[in-house]
Each structure stands twice: as structure tokens, then as C-alpha cells.
Amino acid sequence: MKPFIPHIPFDPIVGEQAFPRVKPNVEETDLTNALIERNTQLTPTAPMQTAILNLVTRISGILDTIMLAPGNFEAAQIEEFRQVGSFKKGTMMRKNNVADLVVTLRTLPTREAVSQLSKKVIDDLKTQNPREALTLFPKPSGFEISSRDASVRVLISTIPPNLKRLDPTLHLDGKLMMQHMAAVRHARWFEENAQHTTVKVLIRLVRDLQQRFPGLVHMSPWIVDLLCQFAVMKTPSMQPLAINVAFRRVLQLLSAGLFLPGSLGIPDPCEGGQRCHTVMSLEEQDEVCFTAQTLLRVLAHGGYRQVLGLDGNASEIVSEMSVLNGIVVSPSTKVYEKHDEEVVPENTENEEPMPEAAPVKQEEVEV
Predict the structure, then answer these.
(1) Cα 245 to Cα 243: distance, rounded to the nearest angstrom
(2) What is the pLDDT of residues 82-102, one digit of tens each?
(3) Model-level pTM?
């Protein structure tokens, strides 16, 4: 079998020594200020952060008590629990005041046990403050507790030996719980490798792009985390880039085909180095690439306010012709055409097979 040799997309930051600049760097004060302004608009307000921190702290305290001194509660035994997702990472968006906790059970995760655990938690919360309006929502992944200003999703997992003993008629979905385990691994990696402020700001900005430009939505939150950490921290000097340079680099990397078939991509540090973008179909990889190409050209011709959404809803710039400072920018179009006889899009002949993974809606668990 012919060995798989990935190509490395062109990266202006890494290739600057081989391709020196003809002109010196231009100061981008306006772009930097616009990025900071947009980040401020996207960051949750202080009252929102206080409300969710308060709810997370109280629920964590109750879970800690159940784990260490369960008393009469015998429905389930907690092995550990851990904060995950955007609240833990410090990348939470405004109007999305939701935190995630993964609770790993030592006992088998039956639906009845999870129901009893959720009732125990909300009863203890109401005992602490009887006047507080709290709502409990059972979920396939666990349960959610909401107050007036914040919500906490409790995502249930179990210890690995239990995964082989699951009964679909009695227990929670095993694939969901494996994804919750992955969320814990992602949170640990992020805590060790992506704590730089610029990384967190860039993640928030890229997620904002996803909300306004559908072509980028195919990148999961975990792919966005890896991409932004790479764009800021992976430099020849090992020094983090400024936010304006890193933001442009994200679009340059995607435009150059970082997440296209055959690309080296970004190895997933939590999954044995498997290329993270192979979870996307070929159509999705193509759409991410040509959407980023259009945005990069708009940015290059001074349209940063349209890209950042500071001049109202400018989502049409990726689908319609636009004129910026006298320059006509036509949107890029798709290249890949799927044929009817095609079944498996990418991992067939020369590439490693992908493990099965059940699709999970992004709002259920952010991994």
C-alpha cells in the first residue's frame, strides 16, 4: 500500500524566512482596535459571569458532598466531577450563559440513578435558598439546572470498565458518555496549553464568525480551540502573536487548505495525533476553505468591519459580490462535487481509519 504523505499548507508566519517581505509590516492599529471592540461586545458582562459562577460553585459544593459524604443517598456513587467547556476555558460568549460539568459515576449510569441524582442536587439547592426560582431539565446526556440568569449542564459519564456493561434499555448512551470523557481530556489540555489571553480572545472571535458565516460552522468547538492555539502559539520564535496577526493567520491557514483532504492539518493531542479535521466531510472541508478565502480577501481590502460584524449584518459578503475601496471582491465558490457512487469521502486508501463517533448537537456538550 502506498504510504500516506500529507502536504503542508503554506503558512506566511512559518515561511517568512524563506519568503522575506518586500515591504515592511504595516501597522494595523485600526484592525487591532476593532478586534478588541468586537471581543468586548462578545464577552459576558460582569453580572452574567457572577451569576453563573455562583450557580456552578453551589452545584459543585453539593456534588462534592455527595461524593465524599453521601449519607442516605445510595442511587449512585460519584468517582469525580470536573468543569469543562467554554466557561471553564474562559471563552464563553455573551447570551450563552451556560456552564458544563462532567460527573463521572463509579456505579453504572442508569437513567433512574441520574434522575435521583438530579433531584438530590436541585433539592439541596432549594434548601440553600428556598426563594430562588430553579428549573430542572432532564437531558439524554444528563440534566440541566437553570436559574433566572444562568444554567449549568451536568453531563454524565462513567469509569471506562463500565462502558462494556451498558444496557441501552437501562443506561445512558455510551457514545455520549465517551464524548463527555473527551470533554474532560480537552479541558485538561486547554488548561495546560492554551491559557494565553490572546488565544481565548481569538477563540471568541472565530466562534462569532461561525455564527454569522455558515460556511465555518462545520468546525467543532474543539477544532476551533486547536486552530486558535496553533495560530497564536506555533511560531518560529515560540513567542505568541498579536491578536491582529493571529486573526489574519487563522483565515490564511484555512484559505491555504489546512483542513482539506491530504493536508497535514492539526494533530489532535487527545486522540493519538489523529488529524482533527477528518471528522468533517469533504463538502464541509471545502466550504470551510472557500468561505475563509472570501473573508481573507475582504479583510485584505480593508473590509475588517464587515468581517467582524461591526457594520451590522454583513453575512452576504461570502455569497454576493462586494466593492471595498474601489476593489470588487467576488465570493469564492465550491470546488468539490460529490458523485453518487462515492461512499466514504476521505479515509479509504492511504489514510488512517476514523473511529466511529455519534453526532452530537453542539448545544448539548461542548468538547
Answers:
(1) 6
(2) 999 999 999 999 988 899 999
(3) 0.89
